[in-house]
Design brief:
It is built from 10 helices and 7 strands. It is an alpha+beta fold. Strands 1-7-6-5-4-3-2 form a 7-stranded antiparallel beta sheet. Helix 1 packs antiparallel against helix 3. The longest helix has 25 residues.
Amino acid sequence: MKKVSLYLLSFFYIVAGLNHFINPDMYLKMIPLWLPAHETLNLLTGASEMLLGMMLIRGEVRSLAAWGLILLLIAIFPANIYMYTQGGAAYGMPDWALLGRLPLQFLFIVWAHVHTKNPEFDRQAIRTQLDIQASESKVWKELTTFEAYSEWNPFIVQARGSGALGEKLEIVLRPPDGSEFRFKSLVVERVENHAFAWRGSFLFRGLFDGTHFYRLEKTQGGVRFEHGEAFEGILVGALAKLLGPTKSGFELMNEALKKRCE
């Protein structure tokens, strides 16, 4: 049912956007007089509707497209109010029809919002693991002695902070391609000798969030180290291709940790 809804929504906006080019006069009358460049605004609106409608079909950018449609509907809402204040006679329709368009916009917002959630692409995860012939306490000490990361860690080349639960860490990542990223993250989990995790966000929560984690599990003669990150947010699908080099960075760090501890 959701797939039917998706394709109907996509088809509607592609056709609606195309109509801005086929019947521009219909839309030019809707644009409030106080706005400049009416013809340009009409073309931009039509092109935006077509582009966002087509993007809905692509799973990796579906959430982004749905949010774009919501913002577009909010942006053009004043045009619907303007139409109502002008009266139906100006558009060859009864006043009640113009009044009915106003709440209809909110229904379209709700319809688009249904497709902002796209679990297949809104959540991605990197998981790596390897066995280390060392005690849990030794591996834990190396992982939580952040000031020493620069001595051995080829991926997280710098980390500053106490690592206490609820506190912030300043992180510098260096993926295999050589570029560096600096950001601040919140420590969201700390279980001595067992689990540690921090969470960071790009610009604001819900856009592109990452929860980076370490897990230690005792094995016969050593410890199994699980190292990964769970990503979520509306940009995850669009940025999924960038996660490949990130996984290589995790694996480089894992091998460096193994060498340091054994």
